[in-house]
Specification:
The protein has a domain at 2-192 and 224-252 and 295-312: Rossmann fold, CATH 3.40.50. Helices cover 45% and strands 16% of the residues. The chain is built from 13 helices and 12 strands. The chain has helices at 10-22, 61-71, 85-90, 93-115, 119-124, 157-176, 198-207, 227-240, 257-271, 301-307, 315-328, 330-337, 340-350; strands at 2-5, 27-31, 51-55, 75-78, 126-132, 180-185, 187-189, 212-215, 221-226, 246-249, 254-256, 283-286. The strands form 3 sheets. It has a 7-stranded parallel β-sheet, with helices on both faces. Helix 6 (157-176) links the parallel strand 5 (126-132) and strand 6. The radius of gyration is 20 Å and the shape is globular. 43% of the residues are buried. Residues 83-85, 132-134, 186-187, 197-198, 201, 213-215, 220, 222, 257, 289, 296 line the site of 2'deoxy-thymidine-5'-diphospho-alpha-D-glucose.
Length: 353
């Protein structure tokens, strides 16, 4: 079986569902259930014996040792993190604890477990660390996309904490020989994404006739990767990646934020027309994110060349699926929008006129 961390979050939950569907190998899913973790994402697995959910913290060394000894996984896939840049600006502490100290505890536990494995299992074991393109910093319009050899230059507390975790993973391979794999991917979008992130925030605000808050001039560029494509890439990296290597994963979809928002609005105009006017009229420019990275772009040539992976979705197909998913899953949406989410919207947007 495999052990994954953060499997109740956006990408982790998509991965668990995809993995059980495509591979079918049992999964132990360790997740703290922070505001971003959501058991509803995994509701379809409630009676599935291949999914064992454990609520707990990756910083809990005793729990990690017990889980590894009990379940004896052949691989550990690490998705758990504090993942939202704006939250890292307002409160970096949890990012240091989970992304740096938590990853350290996980590496320690994995090393202890792996060292005790028989030789054949030891060489087959993998520790796959899911990271981000934000570790590379920001690109000017004319600069080439990030490759695996681009120097690290993280700009937000979130990016710095992920960069630190990448360095720890690298060191555990280099120093102790732990068979690690690291993937650095671009902005994911798709089903089950918590609506603090750009695309679900825009879809859900537009559906409620609320303003669509655009930071700065809206011309920051991101590369958009459909989450299903990301899951397929991770499966491939786990299957055939070279221990110690890193792989950049991108969607080949560089877009300005305004392009993304106009596309979402145009799809909603078709699927849920307003009585009067169109959704793009809700766009409102607001104060910029401090230290806002201007452009991210990924050169995904290595994973295509070495592992034969490339994205299947274009932005046009992926965004249409995504908007439709939010329209068709109103019960999930209502539950996510209640409670703590409202506090976040108050904190992040009322202070940013
Ligand atoms: P998310 O915020 O939706 O989910 C994170 C999950 O981790 C949640 O279920 C949460 O409960 C869990 N978690 C948080 N702290 C924990 C702890 N201390 N112990 C155990 N579980 C804990 O994040 P996501 O968007 O699914 O991102 C998953 C991973 O992918 C992260 O490592 C993130 O840095 C990386 N990543 C995300 C994107 C993106 O666009 N979303 C892009 C690149 C990389
Ligand atoms: O690049 C990968 C990263 O992508 C991941 O590592 C992070 O976990 C993930 O959150 C994401 O980070 P971003 O900061 O790029 O994503 P976010 O959805 O927060 O913002 C995308 C862009 O949209 C960014 O330029 C900021 C802008 N934005 C965002 C929000 C929430 C707005 O203009 N208005 C908003 O309200």
């Amino acid at each position: 079986m495999i052990l994954i961390t953060g499997g109740a979050g956006f990408i982790g939950a998509n991965f668990v569902l995809d993995w059980l569907n495509v591979v079918g190998e049992p999964v132990v899913n360790l997740d703290k259930l922070t505001y971003a973790g959501n058991r509803d994402n995994l509701a379809s697995l409630n009676n599935d014996p291949r999914h064992i959910f454990v609520q707990g913290d990756i910083g809990d060394a005793a729990l990690l040792a017990e889980l590894l000894q009990t379940h004896r996984p052949r691989a550990l896939l690490h998705f758990a993190a504090e993942s939202h840049v704006d939250r890292s600006i307002l409160g970096p502490d949890a990012f240091i604890r989970t992304n740096i100290e938590g990853t350290f505890q996980l590496l320690q536990a994995a090393k202890a477990y792996w060292s005790g494995l028989p030789a054949a299992e030891q060489s087959a074991f993998r520790f796959l660390h899911v990271s981000t393109d934000e570790v590379y910093g920001s690109l000017e319009a004319h600069e080439p996309p990030f490759s695996e050899t681009t120097p690290y230059a993280p700009n937000s507390p979130y990016a710095a904490s992920k960069a630190s975790s990448d360095h720890l993973v690298r060191a555990y391979h280099h120093t102790y020989g732990l068979p690690t794999l690291t993937s650095n991917c671009s902005n994911n979008y798709g089903p089950y994404q918590f609506p603090e992130k750009l695309i679900p925030l825009m879809i859900l605000n537009a559906l409620r006739n609320k303003p669509l808050p655009v930071y700065g001039d809206g011309l920051n560029v991101r590369d958009w990767l459909y989450v299903g494509d990301h899951c397929a890439a991770i499966r491939r990296v786990l299957e055939a990646g070279q221990p110690g290597a890193t792989y950049n994963i991108g969607g080949c979809n560089e877009k300005t934020n305004l392009d993304v928002i106009h596309t979402v609005c145009a799809i909603l105009d078709q699927l849920r027309p307003m009585a009067d006017g169109n959704h793009a009229a809700l766009i409102q420019f607001i104060k910029d994110r401090p230290g806002h990275d201007r452009r991210y772009a990924i050169d995904a040539a290595k994973i295509e060349r070495e592992l034969g992976w490339k994205p299947r979705e274009t932005f046009e197909t992926g965004i249409r699926k995504t908007v439709s998913w939010y329209l068709e899953n109103s019960a999930w949406v209502e539950r996510v929008l209640s409670g703590d989410y409202q506090n976040w919207i108050q904190t992040n947007y009322t202070a940013r006129p």
